[in-house]
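Side project, low priority. Logging it here so it doesn't get lost.
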Amino acid sequence: MNQGIMAMPQDGSEHASVLVVDDEPKNVLLLKDLLESKGYIVCSAMDGESGLTLALQRLPDVVLLDVMMPRLDGLEVCRRLKAAQGTAMIPVLLVTALDAREDRLAGIDAGANDFITKPIDSGDLILRVRNAVTTKRLYDRVAKQFRQLQELEAVRDSVTHMIVHDLRSPLTGLQGYLDLLSMVADGNREVVEYALEAHKIADRIKELVSQVLDVSRLESGQMPLSRTDVDLAELLPTAVATLGPPPEGISIGYEIPGDQVVVACDHDLISRVIINLVGNAFKFARGSVRIGLRRNEDRVRLTVTDDGPGVPEKFRQMIFEKFGQSPLGQATAARSTGLGLTFCKLAVQAHQGEIGFDPADTGGACFWVELPGETR
């Protein structure tokens, strides 16, 4: 096994490494001389097994791989490189005298990124290696930026989780003092009403805090589901009733089968999904909200439709993102989803279901949920 040396870069190839795998010493020497003259760091292996081991150890920017080798041929080495997580994105250039269509198809099927035909044309070799290095460098840059974004998001989520976790105790204390205030109001109806309204606001804040924590648990897969057979036809109106009367001027209608629609699901999670979707519809409806439920082959479909301003098509996926917000056309308001729709998406996906959005025939928004229709 031979190892290359540094040379002065001439074409932006500084620090780029190339692994040459070929069982013919003269071919290895030719490739090393050509590449090192252009500033590449070259290492080499004389058989497929050694080449595979060296690739996994060194993680080169490009692999030049001879096809016809004894024992472990180039196609099999290429397959194994592309199957391994650490080397899957390293460009593999097959060096071969085979130029038949079926040979190239076999190389592509093995995962090869490009071909270099023997006898070697030095200009062609340098151009193809340069392009492969550029591709690898672009991938590395994007991968690094993605990791940085993941780290930043993890820090943000950690800080958010810490803040909302610390809010729970003072909120519980605030609710306790509001209860005491109602008790000592000594018949002062105005004070009692204010205390009750403040208690409702505190309840809402506590629900938002729980929502943040639940989103975090669902994202990390740490929220176990307590599945039971639940009749959604019964659950729907019960869950909606917890929202209280619809806003003034808003009517609510149901399209629910007369018989049971039973699915195996976590009662509390699906109830909260319904509450979030209907509560969101109440915010933007102009006159009515319709709630539908029907079986569709082996799935159950729940719909919540409002006649509000709707959401432009390009923002429809954004509204399921954490803290997402979607402008409402010319309206000055925005359909701010906070974590409500994110929670719905994660809770539905935890049930192997789907959630989405379609424009309603009323011009408003139609959110739908599909759940597997099986029971326990």
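Brief comment: The chain has a mean pLDDT of 83.
Revisit when time allows.
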